[in-house]
UniProtKB/TrEMBL annotation, chains A, B, C, D:
Domain of life: Eukaryota
Protein's recorded name: Translin
Subcellular location: Cytoplasm; Nucleus
GO biological process terms on file: RNA metabolic process
Keywords: Cytoplasm, DNA-binding, Nucleus, RNA-binding
UniProt main location, coarse: cytoplasm
Lineage: Eukaryota, Viridiplantae, Streptophyta, Embryophyta, Tracheophyta
Amino acid sequence: MDAQFELFRAQLDESSTLRDRIRAVVSEIESASRVATAALLLVHQPVPLADVLVKAKAQVEVIKGLYAQLAEVLKECPGQYYRFHGDWRTETHMVVSMLAFTHWLETGGLLMHAEAQEKLGLCSGEFGLNVEDYLTGLCFMSNEFPRFVVNRVTAGDYDCPKRVLGFLTDLHASFRMLNLRNDFLRKKFDGMKYDLRRVEEVYYDVKIRGLVPAELKQETQS
Amino acid sequence: MDAQFELFRAQLDESSTLRDRIRAVVSEIESASRVATAALLLVHQPVPLADVLVKAKAQVEVIKGLYAQLAEVLKECPGQYYRFHGDWRTETHMVVSMLAFTHWLETGGLLMHAEAQEKLGLCSGEFGLNVEDYLTGLCFMSNEFPRFVVNRVTAGDYDCPKRVLGFLTDLHASFRMLNLRNDFLRKKFDGMKYDLRRVEEVYYDVKIRGLVPAELKQETQS
Amino acid sequence: MDAQFELFRAQLDESSTLRDRIRAVVSEIESASRVATAALLLVHQPVPLADVLVKAKAQVEVIKGLYAQLAEVLKECPGQYYRFHGDWRTETHMVVSMLAFTHWLETGGLLMHAEAQEKLGLCSGEFGLNVEDYLTGLCFMSNEFPRFVVNRVTAGDYDCPKRVLGFLTDLHASFRMLNLRNDFLRKKFDGMKYDLRRVEEVYYDVKIRGLVPAELKQETQS
Amino acid sequence: MDAQFELFRAQLDESSTLRDRIRAVVSEIESASRVATAALLLVHQPVPLADVLVKAKAQVEVIKGLYAQLAEVLKECPGQYYRFHGDWRTETHMVVSMLAFTHWLETGGLLMHAEAQEKLGLCSGEFGLNVEDYLTGLCFMSNEFPRFVVNRVTAGDYDCPKRVLGFLTDLHASFRMLNLRNDFLRKKFDGMKYDLRRVEEVYYDVKIRGLVPAELKQETQS
């Protein structure tokens, strides 16, 4: 009995140490993600978009390096990705949300799963970006849009609601195709409906006040 | 965007189906484990021990077959043992508790981790018996002893408390060597202290009433 | 053993008495702070600002005197500021919130930590204004603004939302630089986001209704 | 505003770092205290008392060294003992309980506050052993006695209950002299009553069965 418990003691201590190392890297990911998100918050103010994006993207490189460190740590325990996955799940949601919002600000389109993986250097082998984490990150990104359209309209950008509405409507429709059995994800997705509704209201406000003069022309083009 | 979500849809449906298949097997494990535990409960009554053990051990063979089925299902998703682990964790605690109590009834000793694995056919490859699940199962087994010694003494078996006390004391001391950072396991271990105390009290009762005539001789030996 | 416990009895009674004296002063601080806050609430009504401020500032002098009394009591137990700190923490949050809001009404700017200390006479020696208490007070002040801008706009002051928004945006951005490990403070700061969002919505409302005619000129200046 | 928050950022990070260092030392105190307590648990088994005490006392030296490290860390922030006190309070209760039980096993008497301070090297200057922590530790020690007397009587030591009862009765009476306004301590003290009652019951059991033949003679001596 003693020999067995002595072995367990060593094993449990080893896995505690591993977890501590994982948490130390994850804590740095959280910190870099917080700095990137703070930089990105400047889109709500009259700051040139290019300046905002430069600051956020600098942190993305830092975060990519940290995920590489995490992958290095996890290489020591093959087949146990999901054992420790809960330790960086929340932080990964925040990172994906930030990346996807940055991508939308740049391109007006959706950051694809493969692109997110590539930006985080998570393409190869066992350590990838979990699909459900990617989707949850998109739900968090969606929460940014109501505030964004309000502030853009206030700053006189009356075209913004229409663009956001088109994007969110497509995203929401795509999510609806999925059979979400993950409770957390389904709940977050439910929240996207409210973001969509608020953006619709803002679009309605600018439309009803005649603040979108080129509207008919734009609609013909699209 | 559509192609990506179409792919996710297929992936999520596939993993839902997998989970349903896992849960179906786990439900059968739970059922067989319940039957075995119910059979084992007869040790609290004046039933011949051999009869009790035969019934419990018949279920162990069933359970072993079910774990083999589970391993077969998991072979389809290599490296994802810990992704689905939570789906059979609770049931495995019950199985280990039942196995370890059966083993103690037969031998008076502790069922080792390797023996538990072997009884469940979990020795090979990726699908083993998690150490923390094994330890949690032992804590649940410990909860059986207070009631067991009370009933054995009632049935006139005055030697039983001493044997159980020696076993539980050693098991408790072995656990104390471990640095338990798993909250669930630590809490379950805290409960073992009360089992130990209750068994001590029963032993005290039989001793103080002079019901252990051969005591002095035994103590000299130990 | 008796002598020791006799000594403890005296010590515990002494520290009970001390605590009672601290609580008596703190209760007066709470009372004066409540009067000041009640006076300040008149800014939500059409009352001249000067009248409101006079009443609030009269209480600040009272509160300053009470903190001096508190410091006097604490001089009797050097090095134990943090032992009793919890006894006046909540009241200090309310006082700082009231002071900072008063200051913003007067100047449109942030009451600095050093200024808050000076107004409360807490500059010297061991008894200062804890930084986390100061920051928590600012979070409480932030909660006043959504209601304030709504009432100012109702009263016809359409410039107010823009001024408040600029102030709150800067304050929020400053807080985001901090790595808040104090749970209570972090939670209070999380609430500031909703205040900010509500003020943005009010600003959006006045803007979209064309109630800020001088807007374009202001934006050019900023 | 920026300069002030930059300063706060530095201050908060500094105090986070300090807290992390404190917690690292406290975690080692907890670990050494756990080893000492595990060693002390052997008094419930037929192990020579001298062997048990040697092992426990070896850890006391380790713990003393760790408190010296803690004091060293706290020297960097004079006057803030009580700011961080909550971080080692629980561990100190365990340490005092273990020390006081060890002392009783050796001498049959109470470990005085000054002796506890000296064993932990906490005599000098600002960093002492808080009286309420000392008293709480004694309450935890009291919880060990019911189990101890049961096991001693089982092992044939029929004099033990009387000795423990005399000690606990005095300790309980001493506590009753105190006006306990600390809620946590008062609640722990309430538990001592149950320990006393259980020890009385065990004493009654041995007395009623005539297992204390030398009783009258002993009473005359005491």
